[in-house]
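Working notes for the structural subgroup meeting. M.R. asked for a predicted model of this chain before we commit to crystallization trials. I am recording the input and output together here so anyone reviewing the notebook later can reproduce the run.

Input as submitted:
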Amino acid sequence: MEGEKARNAQRVLLTVTALMLGLLCWLLWRSGFFEAIRTPQGMEAYIQRFSPYSYLVFFFLQLISVILAPIPSNLTTVAGAVLFGALPAFLLTAGAVVLGSVIVFQLSRVIGKPFVEWFVSSKNREKYGEIIRRKRDTFLFLAFLFPFFPDDLICIMAGLTEIPFRRFFFLVLIARPWGLLVAAAVGGSALQIPLWGMALLGLAGLLVFGAAMKYGDAFEEKIIDKLRRS
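Returned structure, recorded in C-alpha cell form:
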C-alpha cells in the first residue's frame, strides 16, 4: 500500500512538473524569446525589454536553461555580459546554473526513474547510465568540466545514484562555472586585447570549436572507456 502511494505521488509530481514546463515554454514563445535567441543582438534586446528587472529576467533565463536543453546558457551569458558586464553576468549565471542543477537533481531523486525517462533519451541513458553509477564522482567532475558533455542531462541522471547531495553540490560548484566564466569574459570584453589579438583569439576559438565538433565525441568516448577499464 505504501509503495503504491509513493508511486502515485511520483506520477502526480511528474505531471505537475511537465505541465509547468509546458506553460513555461508557451510563455517564452509568447514573449518572443525563441525568436530573439537566434542572435546575440536579439538576445540582448530581449533582456533589455524587461528593464528595470533585466537582472532578474536574465537570472531566470539562465536557471531554466538547465532544464530546457534548447536554451544555450553560453549564448545568453555572452548577451548578459554585454549588458551588465563580465562579473555580474558570470555571478548571475553561475548562481542560476548551480541552482538549476540542484533542482533537476532533486526532482530526479524524488520522482525517480519516470522523471529521467521523460527528459533523457534512451540513447543517453544507455550511454551514460553505467559509467555514472560505476565512476560516479570522477565522471561527474569531468562531465561538468568539459564542454562537450550534456551537463544538464547528467545532473538529472545523477539523481538516481546514491551520491550524497552535498558531494553532488560540491562537484557542481567547482566544475560547472568555468565555461561560463570564459563566455562572460568574452561578452564583457574583460580582456583588453588589441584588434590583431582579438582576430587571433577569434581564429583560435574557431579552431577549438571545430576540433570539439569533430573530435569531441571521440575524446568523450576515450574518457568513458578509460574509466570503465579502470
